[in-house]
Amino acid sequence: MQSQLTVRLPEELDRSILTIAERLHLKRSDIVRMALERFLEEFKEEEKSKPYEKVKALIGRISSGIYDLGEAHREHLLRKFKKHG
Fold first, then answer.
1. C-beta atoms surrounding 65 within 10 Å
2. Residue 76 burial (CB count, 10 A)
3. Model confidence, pTM
4. Is residue 76 within 8 Å of 69, Cβ to Cβ?
5. pLDDT digits (tens, 9 = 90+) for 15-41
6. DSSP string, 27-75
7. Closest CA to 28 of 37, 18, 15
8. Contact between residue 28 and residue 21 where contact means Cβ atoms under 8 Å apart
9. Are 20 and 30 in contact (CB under 8 A)?
10. Can you tell me the distance from the alpha carbon of 28 to that of 8, in angstroms, rounded to the nearest whole number?
């Protein structure tokens, strides 16, 4: 079942939609529906592209063997630099 949504548009936006609808021989509602679908699809893609989303499957899967790396990372880095420097 389809639902209906009533939206108030500024005149300039309404004119733009009407111009596109006339050029493509579509209804204004078709243009608005297409625009909403595109916006929602892009929003979903943006959600997928967040850094956390890209690496969440890896979190907790790899072990460095250093038990306190998260707590003492600075000390471990300094020790490593002194060793190779």
1. 5
2. 14
3. 0.54
4. yes
5. 999 999 999 999 999 999 999 999 999
6. -HHHHHHHHHHHHHHHHHHHHHTSHHHHHTTTTTT---S-TTTTTSHHH
7. 18
8. yes
9. no
10. 13
